[in-house]
Specification:
The structure is a single chain. The longest helix is centred in the first third of the chain and has 31 residues. The protein is built from 5 helices and no strands. The two termini are about 15 Å apart. By secondary structure, the chain is mostly helical.
Length: about 120
């Protein structure tokens, strides 16, 4: 069981850069999309991705990654409050800055998790 969990954690660690890249791509898609369903769908996908990342990281004992992902999730949810309204992105400038800062922090925590990884199975 412990060996299986270690393998799952190692696989998850290897996938972290791709998951982060997906989060960043979703944010770019949100910023580029016109107001409407497409923007809201991209933002919802970003929130769900960050939520899953936070939960899985926490389950696997990567608390710093989980905490950073949870903070990014909250920032994405706050940004979403203005996503569907004309001018909503401009009005949520501080929320956008907060999300960007949380993603920068998440990047640092992911880099640390990868650097601290024990030799994999």
């Amino acid at each position: 069981m412990a060996r299986t969990l270690a393998r799952v954690a190692a696989d998850f660690r290897r996938e972290l850069p791709a998951r982060l890249a997906r989060a960043q791509a979703l944010l770019r898609a949100c910023l580029d999309a016109p107001v409407g369903p497409s923007r809201q769908a991209d933002l919802k996908a970003l929130v769900l991705l960050l939520h899953a990342l936070a939960g899985t990281a926490g389950t696997l004992g990567m608390e710093a990654v989980g905490d950073a992902a949870r903070e990014a999730e909250r920032a994405a949810q706050a940004l979403g409050q203005g996503a569907g309204e004309p001018g909503g992105w401009h009005a949520s400038g501080p929320a956008l800055q907060a999300l960007h800062a949380r993603l920068v922090d998440l990047t640092a925590r992911i880099d640390e998790a990868i650097a601290e990884a024990p030799p994999g199975p």
